[in-house]
Model the fold of this input.
Amino acid sequence: MKSKVYVSIDGVVKEAIGPQPKHALLFAAPLKSAETIVKEQREARLRNSEFLKQRFSEAIKR
Done:
């Protein structure tokens, strides 16, 4: 599934076709929904938190 790439040049946004100038800002719409992205970020944050707690507890035991 392809997503369209957009370009912003001097405040004007349009679909990017062909080469773009260096000062152009290119961006694309995400293939995932905002809800999915937030859910993945929350899960990653919880995993990282548990990992840090585990490592901290191991460091204290030494």
